[in-house]
Structures are given as structure tokens and as C-alpha cells.
């Protein structure tokens, strides 16, 4: 496809999304929820077509030598189709974020001022193999009254188109415009380049993919982005920690799942408690098959552990590997987190009130915790009802992002003929 | 100055600001307020030095042919010095935005989750002639526990340095780092280029200047920005408006001040009420010396008014000029605002409940009003206590931006040994 054709195609999608966004912003809660439920029903009643389309993607993938892990993520089984439908029903059941007015209060001038929650407008989502993201992301945007442009990976194009068909039929049931959810149907890489620079049409981008994608967007995108970079998360075990809680949390934060961004990657432990606690922790980790790397002081206690390098303190392993450092005290722990962490999620284990509060206040991360596993940093665990991603940026949305992150607030002013004197 | 020297200088400022930001984030409310009051006192006790430095800027300005309006804005009289000091005392008296925890609630897992308000970190402010912005912006950043880098116009460099001296002495009184507030002391234009791309040190940019500055930043900045573009504000007078309120609001919104971004630039009026109301309004505007431009239907009522062109509907006059359009109804008014407006501030005058609510919900602007003058769109009028700017963006801060716009929230999680199952 010629680059000007890609451009025209994407611009057309952008314009249509913007027009649909205006209609969506006026649609009632009931209308949006009806559409969500209708899409869920379509997905289940059209499961045969979905599986056929998916089989087509899988064949192409196998022929093209797609890795087994990616092939697995690409798959649409009956169970996954039911999960998608169930996810949409759950989104429909959430409270409507749109239209809420807060803090309406009277001013000395006589006007009343408040803030109303409204959709952002048009959301662009860029993602990779999993076709279930198509339904999930469309559902979150529809619930929050945003139009959405979905750009999935080319390896899932047939599955995504089949899901998009179901979405369109669901929108029609509720008399919402079909352009409320659009799937980019060209796999040309230039389409992404267009999408991320269409700031006249798009209000926000949500990349749901690897670090490479986010880094490309950081360089090239002109549309603002809900971005997620590294999750280099820490647990600091204070010398006034309860050893049982410390062991439980430090073990869970590393081993409950290895590939998630809220998994602990470095363990910091106060030197006064290390001789008592660390040998036991090392034992637990080794039984779980976790490869350990330690600072000099750690290796003094456990000489078999290889030395951690500077790169280890910055590593997001996403694997059964853990770096361990013995620190003098809370100050040194905070200093380490500030220097090497990624401002994602960090936790202290302590019974000391003042240190707990200092950690909460002073550690500059999107989630800070006391006596809890970093694995809790998640939209569902926080009660957001849904998660569109986790933001490591400070502006707009920080930490797990739910429906609220897809909205903004405007000021409303109620007067009765008031003028400014 | 060589470009690598500019770079080194700015990088040094950035590093120092980041280090200061960490100390500020830990400083108590009392410590920050003490500094604010000490700076206010310094400004007043050093007024002679401030006026001498300012006289120096004024001489350079006069010699260089600076416009009289700019020379006036540059001036530091006793009254303006007292205003700066008073402004800082008012900021000190505001509630501390930092450290507040909201919505702390228990989750089924047993953890408690809430959100804590924290500083952004390092704020960069770029502004033009008015030296009082130096004290004002430094005060807002100090109150919100952010370090700030101030880059004022070269025409005010001596005044800004003298104010910066007062700020540094105030910081010292409260034992806060002097790098909490830094004024860029080189006037090289390349310094701005460095500042706006130092995303490793800066968390947000606040441009306080004309459209040219914001447009440059939109093109070149990699640091996120609280941006303000045009204020093309509308009043729509519905056919169910109270004519007295309509006349009062439409007159005030245009004539109370001409040069502000919340001044009405286009008046929309329903055709059913226009014959009754418009001649009276035209009369009022003409008495006030406002130049009018009208649509065809307006000119049918008042043939002496010249025709408005397409450019008039998009114009931010910032002057005693007004475009007037007669529209069929609310739908046409909303359509006009959507097409030509700048999403800043728009107001409807009506006694009709349903139309008032439709306008509030459907107009996608940072402030939407019923029966009130657009001139109320202002941080002080909204009760924010202070204003760092008005944002026309949708993400992070929208509309008048007070201290809250200089902060963010992080999640806090309180557990008691909780792990994820």
C-alpha cells in the first residue's frame, strides 16, 4: 500500500472516530451497557466463526514460525471466548464513570462551581498477539463513552476482524455508531506511525505491549500516552520487621508470578535482621528454583551466591532471578530505590510506625506499600473493577489505570445571571 | 556561549533541581510556609535593590526600543512589590495540598488501598516580561513542594535575578536548599531548547506566554506540558433566555476585559429571540466601542454591521471586536462551538432545564456554564486559591490550574503481612 493511501485510510478512521465520540458522549448509561451485553452475546453465539478465523491466524503463524508462547497467546478456545464475554458483562455491571459531578459549591460571587467527569474522546490502543484485548479494550472504552481505534498485531488480524464484527453487531443493537469501535484492518507498519501522530483526532494512546513499543512511541508519538515502562519493584525488610510477615511477603512478591511487572526484582534487607532472616529466605527461594545474585554483604552470609553487578540492580528480570542487597537502614533502602528503581511499586516490611510512614511518604513510586506483597499492584486488586494498563508516568494517571484514566473532568458553573464585577 | 556550555549549565541546573525536589518532598508544611513568608519579607525589605535592578532592565528596554506596553509590564513599582509579597502570604495561608490521603478503603483481600497526594517533582516555567511571575510561580511551586526552574524573558533578567536573591535568602531562613528555586541566568535562546527536552530531570513544563511560545513547545518539548492555547469563548443566548440576564451576561462577557482568554469572542443567539434582544445588545456594544461583525441573518436585522468571515468565527480577538451569529437552536449552537471553538469556556443563557443540562453535558470545553459570564473561568473565581495557568488540554489538568495541577497522586497500600494468593 502506498504511504499516502495508508495516510488517507488512517485519517478517515480518525475522522469517523471523532464523529462517533460525540454521539457516544451523549449516549445514556443504559445504551452503552446494552451494547456491551449485546457484544458479549454476539461473541458467544458466533463462537464457531471466531474459532475459524482464529484457526486461520494460527495456521499463518505456524507456517511463519511464530514462537509457541506467542501461538498460545494467540489462541481463541471456547473458554477464552467465554472469558471475553464474561469480561464485557463485568464491565457493563460497573458504575458509570461519566456525568458524575463533584464538589459543586457556592463561591462568594454567587456562582456555583463543580467538576463533571466526561470521556476523553478518542482512544487509540496498540497491542500485540492476544485477540481478547480487542474485546476487553473496546469494552472499557465503550463503558467510558470513548470512541476507540484498535491496532492489534498482524498475527491476529483475522481473529480481530471477527471480533470486530461481533462488536459492530452489538453496537447496532443499541443504535450506537459502528465507528465507535474501529479495528485497523491494514497490517502495514506505517499505519502505526499515522495513528500515533494523529493528534487532531486522538486524545490518548494506550500501548499494551512490550518495552520496545513504548520506547518507539516515546520517540515518535505526538498523541499523549498512558505509558508503562519498567517494573523494577523492591521489597525492603526493615530490622523491625516481623520475621514471619517478612518471609511471607518477600517470598510471595518474587514467586507468585515471575513475568508480571509488579513482581519484586530486588530484595533489600536491613543488616541488623539479615543474619537471622536471610538464610531462611535464601533457602525458600532456592527451593522454588529462583536464581539469586547478591551484594558483598549478602555473599558474606551465603558465599555460594554469585555477585550482583550494577546491571542487576536495574534489571527487570521477569524471570525466576532475584538480586539481594543488605542495606544499613531505611535511608539506604530509600536511596537505593530512588537510584535504581523504576517508580513502579515498592513495599516496606516493618512494625515501626515512623518508618512505615516515612517509606509511604518518601518513596516516589506509583504504588507504595507497607507489609504487603508488591503483587497487589493491579487494577482488580485495588478495586478499580477493570484495568486498561499500569502507568509509570506522573501526569494524568499513575499506577493501575481503570475507567477513570479514560476520562477527564471539566468545570461546570451554574449562575443565575451572574457577571464578573 | 558555546552550545555545549549551555547544555552543561542547564544539565547542572536540572540535576540540582532534582536533588532539591527530594528534600522538598520531605519538608513539612510549616517549613515550606515559613520560607514563603520569609521570601515575602525579603522582597519588601529589599525593595530598593529590586527597583534598582528593574531600572537597569528598563533602561536596556528603552534603549532597545521595547514597546511601551511591554515596558509597563516590566515595571516594578512599590505597589507591585507589595503585591508580590502579599501574593506569597496568600499562598502560605492556603491549605497544604501535599500528603492528603483519600479513599482509603479495605479490599476483599484484606489490604487497605488509598491515594496520597504528592508533588510532581521538578517544574519548569517559561515566561515573558513580567518579573512578578518569578515570585508568584516560585511561591506556587514551593507551596506544592516542587523544585522549580524559572526561565524568564531576557528583558527582565536583572529584576529576576534580584527577586531570585530574595527567594534564596527566604529559603535559607527555613533551611531549605537554595536549588529549590533556580532562575536560569543565561539569556541564550538555546537554554530554552535544553530546558524543554530535559525529561530526565523535569516532570512538567508550564509555559506562561503567548501562543508562539506554546506552539514552539508543542513542536519541540519532550517534557509534558500544562498547555494553554486559544480562548475562543462563546455565549449562546437561547430563545428561552431571560432577556435581562442575557443582556447582562453577553455584555459582561465581552466588555469586562478585552485581553483575557476567557473573554467572549463570538456571540450566538437563537433566531426566535434575536429580533427582540439583538438590537438592544448591538446598541450596548456600540456604546462601549466594540466593533461588530455579523452573519447574514444578523445583518438582515442590522445592515450597518459588516459581514463576518470564516476567519472571524475562529478568531481570538483579545480586543474590542465581537462576531455575532444567529443560530436556529441549541443544536446549531453546539455544532458551531464544536466546529469553531477552542474548548476553553462556553456559556448558555436559558431558563430551560433540559437545554441547560444538555449544554453542560454536550459542550466539550474545559469550563461550561449556565447563566454566568465566561469571565468567571479563573482559578481565583473558582476558589482554587491560586492559578498557575489555564489548561486547554484534557489530560492531567483541565481548565484553571491551581496547586492541585502541580501535584499527582500515588497509591498507598496498607497490609499486615498480606500476600497475593
UniProtKB/TrEMBL annotation, chains A, B:
Coiled-coil spans in chain: 33-60
GO terms classed as biological process: L-proline biosynthetic process
Protein localization: Cytoplasm
GO cellular component terms given for this protein: cytoplasm
Entries under Pfam families matching the protein: Aldedh (PF00171)
Keyword entries, A-Z: Amino-acid biosynthesis, Coiled coil, Cytoplasm, NADP, Oxidoreductase, Proline biosynthesis
Pathway stated in the Swiss-Prot or TrEMBL entry: Amino-acid biosynthesis; L-proline biosynthesis; L-glutamate 5-semialdehyde from L-glutamate: step 2/2
Catalysed reaction, written as an equation: L-glutamate 5-semialdehyde + phosphate + NADP(+) = L-glutamyl 5-phosphate + NADPH + H(+)
EC number: 1.2.1.41
Superkingdom: Bacteria
All copies of domain Aldehyde dehydrogenase, residue ranges: 15-290, 313-377
InterPro entries to which the protein is assigned, alphabetical: Ald_DH/histidinol_DH (IPR016161), Ald_DH_C (IPR016163), Ald_DH_N (IPR016162), Aldehyde_DH_dom (IPR015590), G-glutamylP_reductase_CS (IPR020593), Glu-5-SA_DH (IPR012134), GPR_dom (IPR000965)
The keyword Cell division is assigned to this record: no
Keyword set includes Cytoplasm: yes
Gene Ontology terms for molecular function: glutamate-5-semialdehyde dehydrogenase activity; NADP binding
UniProt function note: Catalyzes the NADPH-dependent reduction of L-glutamate 5-phosphate into L-glutamate 5-semialdehyde and phosphate. The product spontaneously undergoes cyclization to form 1-pyrroline-5-carboxylate.
Similarity annotation: Belongs to the gamma-glutamyl phosphate reductase family.
Name of this protein: Gamma-glutamyl phosphate reductase
Organism lineage: Bacteria, Pseudomonadati, Pseudomonadota, Gammaproteobacteria, Chromatiales
